[in-house]
Amino acid sequence: MLELNNVNAYYGDVQVLRDISLSIRKGEIVTIVGANAAGKSTILKAISGTVPNAEGSIRFQGEELTVIPAHQRVEMGLVHVPEGRRLFPHLSVRENLEMGAYIKRARLQRMQTLQYVYGLLPRLKEREKQMADSLSGGEQQMCAIGRGLMARPELLMLDEPTLGLAPILVQWVFQLIRQIRDSGVTILLVEQNAHKALEVADRGYVLENGRIVMESTGDELLRDQGLRKAYLGM
Ligand SMILES: Nc1ncnc2c1ncn2[C@@H]1O[C@H](COP(=O)(O)OP(=O)(O)OP(=O)(O)O)[C@@H](O)[C@H]1O
Ligand SMILES: [Mg+2]
Predict the structure, then answer these.
(1) Architecture (CATH level 2) of domain 2-77+153-226
(2) Handedness of CA 132, 137, 141, 142 (dihedral sign)
(3) Among 6-10, 21-25, 48-52, whose mean pLDDT is lowest?
(4) Ligand 1 nearest-atom number relative to CA 192
(5) Pocket of ligand 1 (CB under 6 A)
(6) What is the value of pTM for the model shown?
(7) In terms of CB atoms within 10 Å, which of 22, 149, 199, 219 comes out highest?
(8) Which residues contact 192 (CB under 8 A, 6 or more apart)?
(9) Whose C-alpha lies nearest to ligand 1, atom 12?
């Protein structure tokens, strides 16, 4: 479904991604783990088209993305839920969700999708009239994921969806990610919580200083001694 070949990315003169090659098959959950500043978010931004300086090839469902502007990539079914949620603070939950469905591919079905999202995330239905900036952190995260789903993604990219959440909510978000995949959406997940991310993922990539240094199934990576020391605190 998605294939990156030798992707480089720069902020000004500084190279942040080096020769990134990775692939995601339809129906997989794939995770990218790595330390702070390794370049995880930058990979997602390169895929969604929000890094100004990227080189190399990114193919999505057979089409070369690097020549396609960011807003058209969303129309193709590539949806990015960024780090830090980025809700519209002075819009209600319902309005935030509807903003996710303004694109062509999702507009006509938006009422059905809204029911699907409310079914998956009933808390959002209860709070639909509340302003986004008055939601709790966990509710904001639900709203951000819900807004992503409103765009009817083929591939959903989630950047640190459990950041700052209490352990019980963290557990719940990982369950939600499985449920979303089981409903037919392919998932690329970036997480600080490497252990949980590798548990839920089919495959994972380990990123160090902008380079992929390891790639395997989630289970294999969880068993890897070096990785356990470096990232899993074991
Ligand atoms: N807009 C920007 N301008 C300049 N440098 C940037 C910009 N965005 C990111 N960087 C730098 O690029 C590097 C990689 O950042 P990135 O956000 O991809 O890391 P990350 O792996 O997602 O880290 P974290 O786990 O802390 O979210 C960092 O050194 C960061 O300071
Ligand atoms: Mg990041």
Answers:
(1) 3-Layer(aba) Sandwich (3.40)
(2) negative
(3) 48-52
(4) 25
(5) 11, 16, 34, 36-42, 83
(6) 0.95
(7) 149
(8) 36, 160, 162, 163
(9) 16
